[in-house]
Amino acid sequence: MDYLIVGLGNPGRRYAYTRHNVGWIAIDYITDKLGIKTNKLKFKSLCGEGDFRGKKVLFLKPQTFMNLSGDAVFAASSFYKIPPEHIFVICDDIALPSNKLRIRRHGSDGGHKGLRSIITLLNSDVFPRLKIGISDRKNPEMDLKDWVIGEMTDEELHCLDERLPDIFKIAEAFVCDNLEKAMSEYN
């Protein structure tokens, strides 16, 4: 395996279209376009592998719940000896406006417990990530946890659907070692 692309989310129908699951929605879109199924249970994840621009890529949707995402990422990356810089994580970001995309080559967890878990278990923050904004809370008094695990509105889902082709291009840029170009285009 050359690369690992991970979409963060929570397992179960209850969470399928919640804001915290935008990483899973992105993985589903990418793998559908590539004809790859993520239905094999391995590394505490639903996973699928395939060819993406001539590189062997493992796609993961951790089944550990968000706060333990590092367990799945560590298991897969250790098994295939994939270095952190070849791991691409797609997740939500409460600090960004809805559907705003931000690519980072490395950095802190920014308060995201899924990223924190990955950083802790990899003992590194030097893995690229794509953050998808979910911050447009109509009621700022609403509990943050309730917001992130709340279902997206039809409008939010429509806006996310419009960004999925961009997310695919960013994942492609990661695999083709063109992340700098994608950063200048999408950040």
Give the strand order of the largest sheet, numbering strands 1, 2, ... along the chain: 2-3-4-1-5-7-6
- What number of domains? 1
- Give the proportion of residues in helices: 25-40%
Proportion of residues in β-strands: 15-25%
| Shape descriptor | globular
Biggest sheet, in brief? 7 strands, mixed
Which radius of gyration do the C-alpha atoms yield?
Answer: 15 Å
The fourth-level CATH homologous superfamily is: Peptidyl-tRNA hydrolase
Uncertain regions spanning at least 5 consecutive residues: none
The CATH C-level name is Alpha Beta
The ordered string of helix (H) and strand (E) elements is EHEEEHEEHEHHH
Arithmetic mean pLDDT: 96
Distance between the termini: 28 Å
| Oligomeric state | single chain
In the CATH hierarchy, the third-tier topology is known as Rossmann fold
What is the count of β-strands? 7
Label the CATH architecture: 3-Layer(aba) Sandwich
Output the number of helix runs.
6
Q: Which structural category fits the helices and strands? A: alpha/beta
Question: What report would you give on this structure?
Answer:
The chain is of the alpha/beta class and 187 residues long. The protein has one domain: 3-Layer(aba) Sandwich (Rossmann fold). 37% of the residues lie in helices and 21% in strands. The chain contains 6 helices and 7 strands, in the order βαβββαββαβααα. The protein has a 7-stranded mixed beta sheet, with helices on both faces. α5 packs antiparallel against α6. It is globular and about 45 Å long.
